[in-house]
DNA sequence: TTGTATGCGTTATCAG
DNA sequence: CTGATAACGCATACAA
């Protein structure tokens, strides 16, 4: 491995001069700079980030926490983060927490160990270990009071869900609740709930049980009682649709189903899923930019993204 | 941030003693060790990986390269890698290459800069920049001669595809080719091709064009000419199924479709997709283990995973 | 069993 | 404009 020391010998100047030349910091004669650059090229010099980090105690690595990368909503976000990061010379370390506070803690510690410059987290225990993190954190799609966050307008998303179901002729609606520990789910739930009440529509709520899987409470009897279903996300809607198909429930004739997220696959399920699109990629991008600005002491305001109804064949 | 120096002051011993105590390397009296541990706990000591890495020039970070994390096949692999890595105290940096040799090169350089311990890559230009990487590389689902690799038995997978289509009554088959630069696609293609020929079945080949999107060559006329379709992966099968649905082609009555990968969503598309399952998660796990062993000079043999037919309603 | 000294590669300070 | 030199936090060979 070639170091600046090698270059300094090669050119016949001191390491500090090489360092300055390479970083264009401080004064270096054009002549020397040219030589240094040439030598660096010739010797195949690659700067050692580790050493730089140790010295400056600021690395170019950003920790990213998601519940589970296997849920296709997150890869989109991650791409958004990563593309923006790459462009600015940063890299990301990803941690899957599985909503497990222990894992979360472990990863946060790891991020500290690696002198990460910041953390972007789409999963955060309210009273989680992030509390005593000394590196900046941007919350993604999660709002916890007085922390920086980037999210979509989920309250509106929930309203859109309910409105559309009503518009498309549903008269008895089942509102399926998502995890109540995440603001993004709580908001969309409240949005839908408010709209349902406001319209004086008959509806019931399927609470998010301890099993953490609403499908566990779905059966043929329940399905037949409603003609409209509001799902907390597309993944659940897929399974509901599947259940209905297998039980001979006609969608959307007998039952209308609306999801949330607009995953890429929602076009391909049967029937294709009406849903709420949230701009995952852009959320990721914005989160990264916000983090970088925050680090520099800039605090932007607009960190709320609009959502949008995508009408397909399930309603 | 508390360092071993702080601990050494606190306890009243030298930093080297603290270091030894913390790492259980070399002799330390039980008494002192206890004190050091207590102090570390009390002061909330977190070892600085950067410093350790600089010193030993071996980090606990592993670079992972995939074409695009947005393709749901890769998150599964990544989880496999990450879970195995976490367990052994390693972390991963992910890079999306989009099959772009430039990006690939950039990431490999990054991995070097960060003193990564190794690279696991599911995307590799044959004559790519990895050639002159001095850190160990394990190829995932890609075989390039005389490099370490972990993959599924795609030749068999291709055979299974063809066999099953024939068994299910197809008489005129369209074999859709995947990217010919990846061994995993080439193998499954050859497997299917061999079986088709061997069975004397009538078939055609839809070559992988420069557009890189076989759907571009699909139209109603072509669809009607065959009653069996072999897809290089599930994602393409989804789109094909969708096209057929929209054009009123009955599946599987008029056309049988088989995919490859068995993504989670293949159960939910319409009709549910018959496909070949490859153990993505296990591939990831194995890749990590192989890398770790390789680093230690151990070279294992069995790095070939079996694949399996998953019969659903599209055939 | 413990402490001292050195180095990992880089940047930053300060004197020349 | 340039060059010593210290420092970042840790691990280790060697001395005590």
Structure commentary:
Two copies of one chain form a homodimer. Chain A has 315 residues and is of the alpha/beta class. The first copy, chain A, has three domains: 4-47, Orthogonal Bundle (434 Repressor (Amino-terminal Domain)); 61-151 and 280-304, Response regulator (Rossmann fold, 3-Layer(aba) Sandwich), CATH 3.40.50.2300; 154-277, Rossmann fold (3-Layer(aba) Sandwich). In chain A, 42% of the residues lie in helices and 15% in strands. The first copy, chain A, contains eleven helices and twelve strands. Chain A has a six-stranded parallel β-sheet, sandwiched between helices. In chain A, helix 10 (234-246) links the parallel strand 8 (228-230) and strand 9 (256-258). In chain A, helix 5 crosses helix 11 (280-295). The radius of gyration of chain A is 25 Å and the shape is elongated. Chain A starts with a helix and ends in a 5-residue tail after the last strand. The model of chain A has no long low-confidence stretch (mean pLDDT 91). Chains A and B meet through helix 4, helix 5, strand 2, helix 6 and helix 10 of A and helix 4, helix 5, strand 2, helix 6 and helix 10 of B. Chain A binds a DNA duplex (16 and 16 nucleotides) through helix 2 and helix 4.
